[in-house]
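Hi W.,

Here's what went into the run:
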Amino acid sequence: MTEQRKAVALISGGLDSLLAAKVIQEQGIHVEGINFYTGFCVEGHTHAIRKKDQKKSKRNNALWVAEQLGIKLHIVDIVEEYKDIVFNPKHGYGANLNPCLDCKIFMVSKALDWIRKKGFDFIITGEVIGQRPMSQRKETMPVVSGESGAEDLLLRPLCAKNLPQTLPEREGWVARGGLYDFSGRSRKPQMALAAKFGFEDYAQPAGGCCFLTDAQYSVKLADLWRARGSKQYEMDDIMLLKVGRHLRPAPHYKVIIAREEGEGNFLQGYRKQFVSIKTISHAGPLALIDGEPGAADIELAARLVARYSQGRDADLVELEVMDREGTSRTLKVEPIKPHEIPQEWHI
Amino acid sequence: MSRVTLDARRLLCPMPVIRVQDKIATLAPGTVLEAICTDPGVMSDIPAWCRINGHKVIETRSDRAEYIVVIEVGEGE
Ligand code: SF4
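Here's what came out:
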């Protein structure tokens, strides 16, 4: 009996990784999925946080993909190790703070460690030549396989026919004839293949797999680094960048104001770590102050919060300011006028 | 039957799923794991993870702002 060969598929939750894994499964290979959690993944979070999204299904697309394929999914927390990739990407950033090429190399190298430990034979990804301007080009394909150390153990079923043969093909574990030659930005070949396999309702992420491809998010992250004087972040920082309106009236502090109830509930959990402000006299949002605000800064922050409350047109709004120790006091302030908020305060 | 509790409060998905996964890796089949979470997303994500990885969700319930998923560890690998 021939040996059952095993492959691990990098599952992002998007269509390409779903198809790549399916193509290899169809060839009789045992496939399991691996999904890396960097902290910036679009999955779940914002859906959980923002109330208006709560009616939408909160499914995790990577889990959904694994279920469609009937494969196991191993989710790996790489939050700490990933920081180095975000801080110092050897191959630089994409259009925003997305270090896609370094990220791919890193993930494939982690998958390589994994297959070695688990006794799997090769790695598959849903990469397609020319699909993404930075990380998925003809020239970057060998960079990913080479620098990750995976070399010819890395098979990209969707564009394999445009690339040199890999070990699984040479060994006859996988028939090259059953692989594809997709290239370019068009999504049509993937959609046709999805239809052939009967996949519907798959995720179609517009940008990439994570918040780092989001321009707005990257601006907030860059602002955080500037304000701190160095590139650093903790998990809480990157979560908070996804939530609320961020205004920075001065380099040493910024105000994070919830935009709706779900965000308010989320920020509530941070009241022991930040000075927080809540309206009392009117319905209004909860806000946190990130940084080291002085008394005048807190007053200005309170005026901003009042501006985003139901009392925006009132003469005075009463608010509660709570410090990190839980001691609170009240403040009465005049809501700031829109023209008093310089555009550059909005991050 | 042994019963283990996992505190995954304040974590956002997929972190609670990862915690459950890593905990289960250390538990014997048949053990009951109760995961206490605050992200409502766990109500779909943990059962989905259990279905594909061969574990059984015995109960899901929500108690004020907490979401509790009770799992019976399956045979695994
Ligand atoms: S979009 Fe994000 S997760 Fe995807 S390759 Fe780029 S940096 Fe990595």
